[in-house]
Design goal:
Elements: E1 4-7, E2 10-13, E3 18-24, E4 33-39, E5 46-51, E6 58-60, E7 68-73, E8 78-83, E9 92-99, E10 103-104, E11 108-113
Parallel strand pairs: 2-11
Antiparallel strand pairs: 1-3, 3-8, 4-5, 4-9, 5-6, 7-8, 9-10, 9-11
Length: 114
């Protein structure tokens, strides 16, 4: 079982930056591919970014490529999402995910004002 706790969300103006963190429980963190997903009001949850267990491979949705950076610190059991050049359309609840097993955190709200 994996428990995930996100933090770092908040209100920011367009063009600003935020860094999200997701702390995971367990002693096998490096065996999980970690991902960030987001869900805007009235929309389905969508993929944003993912990183392999040892951090060698990353993948991004086209909508965030070049603005968001996913990273991880396996010594701290934590994955990060650095979000730059934020846009109002980035407003959503951001969720951390661990796979395999598809574990989810409770989400953290990100609101970008225009």
């Amino acid at each position: 079982q994996v428990q995930l706790v996100e933090s770092g969300g908040g209100l920011v103006q367009a063009g600003g930056s935020l860094r999200l963190s997701c702390a995971a429980s367990g002693r096998t963190f490096s065996t999980y591919t970690m991902g960030w997903f987001r869900q805007a009001p009235g929309k389905e949850r969508e993929f944003a970014a993912a990183i392999s267990g040892l951090g060698r491979t990353t993948r991004y949705a086209d909508s965030v490529k070049g603005r968001f950076t996913i990273s991880r610190d396996n010594a701290k059991n934590t994955v990060y999402l650095q979000m730059n050049s934020l846009k109002p359309e980035d407003t959503a609840v951001y969720y951390c995910n661990a796979a395999p097993g598809s574990w989810w955190g409770q989400g953290t709200q990100v609101t970008v004002s225009s």
